[in-house]
Structures are given as C-alpha cells and as structure tokens.
Specification:
about 725 residues, mainly alpha, Serine Threonine Protein Phosphatase 5, Tetratricopeptide repeat, 36 helices, about 70% helix, globular
Length: about 725
Amino acid sequence: MRIPIIIGGLLIVLGACGPASRGTLRHPPSQDVSVPAKITQTSYGLNRDRYDSLPIDAEKRPVYRDRLLAYLLDRVELLLRKGDDPEALKTYRQGLTLYDPTEVYRGAVRHARLARVSARLVARHSPQGDEANVLLPLCVWMTLEPDNRQLSAKFRQISRWMQETARLMKGQSRMWQRTVKVFEEVVEVWPSRLVVEDLRKAYIEQRIAIARAFHIGPTSHLRSAVSALFQTGFKVARMFLLVDRMGEALKRLQEVATDRSPDEELGVLLEKATAKSAGAKELVALADYFAQRDQRREDPARRNREVALRVCRTAQRRFPQNAEAYWCVGRLAATLRRTQLAVLSLEQAVSLKPGNREYVEQLAQQYQRRLFRLIGDEKLDEAERELRRIEKFYKTSNSQFKRPISPPLSRVYYAIGHGFYNAGRIAHAARAFEKSVAIRRSPEALVQLATIRVKQKRPDAALTFLDKAEKLSMPTPHARAYWQGRIEQLRGQALDLAGNPAGSVQAHRRAVTAWQTLQAMGLEPEDKAEAYVHEARSLFSIGEQAKGMDALDQGIDVLPDRKETYADVIALLATHGNMPEALDAYHRALGRREVSEYLKSYCSFWIVGLARRAGLPPDPLAMSHLSRLKGTAWYTELAKLINGSVSYETLRKRAKGPSNLAELYFYQADLLLARGKNEQARELWKKVIATNMMAFYEFDMAAFNLRNGAAKVSTRPIDRKQGRTEPSHATSN
C-alpha cells in the first residue's frame, strides 16, 4: 500500500487540454470531445472536469452526461446497499449537477433511472422524518414525473410541516428559517421552477416575519437594516441569475428593494447589464460584484462564485472577441477547481492579449494544475507529454517577458518527480527532482533525493543532499523545525547504513528534539498528528519504544479522524512486532468512517500477519473484514491470498505491474514467515526491493526485515515505565 505523500504547496486538481495557441481568435474554438465508453473511479474526476467545460449546446454533451450519470448512480446504489447513506447522498448530488440549472428550471430533464433512484431515496429517508434529505430527491422526482399529483401533495405537506414545526419550536419570527435553509440546499443543485418560486416567497415571508417581530413599519428607517440582515434582494437576484434569467433577477430585486437598501448597488449593476447597450464590461462588473461580495455565515462563497461564473460565461458567449470576458471565466473557473474550463478560457484570453502577463501567469498555473491531476491519476505518459508542452510554454513566455514567469517551473519538476517515485520509476524521479533543484533549491526536493539514496543504500549521496538542505534559509521557525526533523531523521538512517551507529542515534535524538520544538510552537491538529508520527519513528529507531508509543497515542488522539495516522501507526508497530498496540490502533481504525475500505484492508493484512507469526489465531474482526470484501480491486485479491482461497501462483499471473508484484511478494513472504520458512521469505523481500516501489509501506517493511531480520512478535504490551531498550531485531522463528 502506498504511503500517503502530500506534494507540498501543490494543488492536485482536475484538468486537461493543450497549450495556448498564438494569434487572434476569430471565433471560440470548438472542443474535440472524446466520450469514453465507460467511466471508472479513476477516470471520473478528469472526465467530469472535461464535461463541465462543455457549452450547454455541445453535440456530445448528452451522451457524455449519460455516461457520467450511469457511473454515479451505480455508486449511489452500491453505497445504499452498504448502508452508507451520507456518502450515497453526496454522490447523488454530484449526479444532479451534471444538468445545467437552466435545463432543470425549464423542466427539460427526463431520466427513468434517476427517477427510480430518487424514489428510493425518498422512501429511505421519509420514515426518519429527515426533510432535508427527503426534499431534494422528491423535487427531482417531481421534475421527472411532472404529472404525479401525489408527489406534489407530499412536497406541500413537507413544506407546511417545516414551517409549523419551526413556528412551534422557535416562534413566529423564525418559522421560515428552516424552510429557507432546506430550499437553498435544494436550489443549489436542483433549481426547478417550483422550488425557485417557493424559495423566493420564503425569503420575502421571512423578512416580513422579522419586521413584525421587531415592530418595523413599512416606512421605517430600520427597514433597510432588516434587508441588510437577511439579504433578501441579493439572494432573490442571485437565485434567478443561477438559472440565467437576468431580466427576472432585476424585476424580482426591484420588488423587494427599498431606498437606502444595500441592494441598490446590485440593482444599478443589473440595470446596466440588461441594457441594450450593455457590453462585456458591464457583465464582468456584475460578475465581480458576486465574486468579491463579503460573505456571511449563511451565504457560502461558492454559491456567489458559481453565479459570477455563469454571468461571465454569458459575456463570453455574447462577446467572443473580448479578452476580459475569457479572463473572467478563466479566473473564476480556477477558484472553483474547474481546470479544463479555466485552461480553455485563459488560452483564448492570452491569444487575444498575448502581452498581458497576468493572463499568462494564470494560464501557467492552470497548466500546472492539469499536470498535477494527471500525476495524481497516475497517467504518467500523458504527464510527460504535458510536461514537454509546459516547458515549451515557459520557454516562450520567459523569453517574451525577459524574466521568468510565475509560478516557477521548479514545482512542476517536483510534482512529476513524485509521480515517477510513486510508480517505481526511480531514475526518472531523481532526474525530475534534480531539475527542480537546478531551478530553485528547496528542502522538499533535496529531502526527496536523500530519501531515494537512503532506500538505494547510498548513504554518502544521501548525506550530501541533506547537508545542502540543512544550509537553506527557511521562511519561518516552524519550517526550520519541520525540515530539521525530516533531515535529522534521514541522516540517522543514512549514518546507520554507513556503519556509524553512534552518529545515527545522535541524529535521531536531534530529530526528536526538532519535532518536540515544532509541537511547542503550536500547530494545527493535522500537523500535530504528522509530527508525533515522525517523532515516534525516530524513538523506535533508537529503541525508546515506550516514549515512541506515547507519541503514537498522541498522534491518534490529537485528530482521531485523520485516516493516514492509523496506517502510519499500525505499519510502524507491525514492523517492530508490537502486536497488542497494533491491535488496539487497528480496532480504533475499524470504527472510523473516515478510514477507507482500502486502508482498513491493508491494516488487516498486517494484523493477521502478526498473529500468525506469533502462533495465535488471527483477530476475528480482521478476518471478518477480509471475508466481506467484494469486487476486483487488487487488495480484494490479496485478501483471498491471506484467507487461503487463492494461490500465490494464481495471483502471480494476475498481477499487473510492479506495484501489484511488490505487494504480492511481501504478503506471500509474510505467510512463509509464519510457517518458519525464513529463507524463502527473505528471497521474496529481495524481490519487493527489486520492484523499486519505494513509496509503499511494503518496501520499507521488506527493507527493515532484510537489514535487521523480522522483528520478534511481542504479545505483551510495551512497559510504559521502562527506560531505554534495544530495538527488537530478532526473527520470529
């Protein structure tokens, strides 16, 4: 299983498409859309981003939408069967947003399977009295079956129930609060005409109720204060802009706006944008009003940016030769992580105004994000081609502006280096990290180069990189402490390899001091958890397991829902043979919804392996988890190996690539080790190392076993009162 790696400072987001063209665009270029025959878990993100960049009238858009929706509905039904209702609803909402709000508002949506899934969700949540989760699928079902009067009656019943319940519990002035909140959540993903109109009325009724509660008359000078408090006009206008009805937005705003109202500025902008003489400038100004508006707690920024983006896309369609309209779409799409749309729009903005450095640098950033997504999706061949295009783009742009553009190309090399590292293409990874360092020396790239050399058992080369990293200036004391901890930890490993055990212990002690210094500076829980795990690794390396165990406990307790911590903790404990502590952490992981099936499965493998090496029956919960696994994922195949329902030879034939082989060799070695076949296990550990899958826990475990011998499994808890003890390097047999 791959060790979680965070590419520091880089956003892994969706993206696709080619480099910017040069020369004036006469018309917006059409996209060459290739609709995949099937959407998978790994391809969904990239394909969704490409789909979202299509104009609503694109020829292949309906087919593309149906492919994506089929995948999402499959996921919804699977999650419902597993009883994971929250994730099912989240996935269902993703499917609804495949439809453009204007299609929903017009009632131009028909999809039999979506109707069936919606009906199932309504039935699922109705007995629970969960109106928030009932109303959305009910509204979708109503759109898909407009003649079903029973659905309309149920909708009215739920609406009345929300209002009456709120009135009885919170009073007349707050009776509309719940209705508004639930309707807003529905409109965000499914703005049908019925819900839009009901929400508009609810906004107005809510304001009237508050006005009455505070005895504010229709001519009172406090009326504008009420309007400001509840943003009625703004929210009404925003809702109609969401469905591309700009004229309606102005009309409805005028119905509720008053003199000295905070809606006055919006009214002026809408009047200018809807005037016959309106140009791109007026539309962009309206979009900027929404994008830059100060956000209230009940007014999520994303809703405003979505509306701003829609206004900009209107400007783009109406004024295809205006660079500012494309720039508006590009920068807003970037903030919403719609990289494909951002790239397409920014390319056109740059083509229309190639001398605008701001446009060029924003485009460079989106090219990098697209590359990072390809790396994250392990599409390394595509990433290499993309890298060549980016290098050419940077060369041309740097020459044009006479100085390097931002963001720097060094982080591109750093990111693709991680991609190669994760895939076991270590020579490619090292070259990429070296290119990154050649542009700008960074602790991230130098430490990664040192990591590679340590895992290649080249301590002298590793120490050289670490010395260079240590000499770098750091932007903050936090950064200095963090990187000092990383550097000293690796230095301890390198010195151990170089035959200097005393120097290794000193380096690990300096690492522990650095991590403790960092903790004392004050950190976010996520960073605290990571720091505690690093501290524990150095403590275990020098035999101070009692202190190391204290650090691991703190690492879990400081943020119990951080899933990566469980894998780090259990892997470390399994490597050193500490069965009771590993089992305790494993049981905590099993009870966390945040910990994925994938991660729970590998942790189960380690727990089962420890028990068998100790001559004990495997943990029943671990075996139960493995027996319930379904599907064709590689970890489900490995579970069959560990359960004894498939042979090693059979899986050897099914293995695809070095990543599968590294894991197969390791877990077969674990089975052999439990049977006392140490030499055969040792030969398989060597094969794990030969795969070069350095980013895998199994690689590090195999390397530890080859150097030290597999740790003897201890069935007794670590004595927390003990002093320093020697690391356990004895074999289990």
